[in-house]
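User: Can you predict the 3D structure for this chain?
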Amino acid sequence: MASPGAQGGGALSTRGGGGARRMKWALELSMGTSRGRGDRQGGQGDVVYPIGYSEKPVPDTSVQETDRNLVEKRCWDVALGPLKQIPMNLFIMYMSGNTISIFPIMMVAMMAWRPIQALMSMSTTFKMLESSSQQWLQGLVYLVGNLLGSALAIYKCQSMGLLPTHSSDWLAFIEPPQRMEIMGGGMML
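Assistant: Here is the predicted structure, written as structure tokens:
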């Protein structure tokens, strides 16, 4: 039984023979359609494009990297990255304490290694900043941020007692003083 309002992609039909009790509808694409195949067909013979396909080019809506404001913002994000890590490092310094154990030592090692690694790869960072008009200022901010991170690591080492900053740390290198006089004992009564 075919539906009288079937138009478009095929004819709608009912399955299951009997009357109006329970009907299932199915889309049969093998039947003839009211549209011709020419409106869905490309220029390559029998290739059938899906419904809604258009051969017109879609306009490019992607954001282009040439926008100066986005480039400047991205370069400032790179330059301010080390300065944004300083509050996190301060919190980690506070939480790790001043005792000498494996956890504080690992935290100090990571705090010292990250700025050193960033300073060793400054040339690649400056290549990223070349597209900015404020390249030198951003490079200076990046350098200062990494030096501050190194200074925090050195301060943490000093507060844990790992740096030889007291005179007692150098006793092995100090020669014992020479005696100026030798005094002998007296007589006992």
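DSSP finds four helices and two strands in the chain. Residues 140 and 151 are 16 Å apart (CA to CA).
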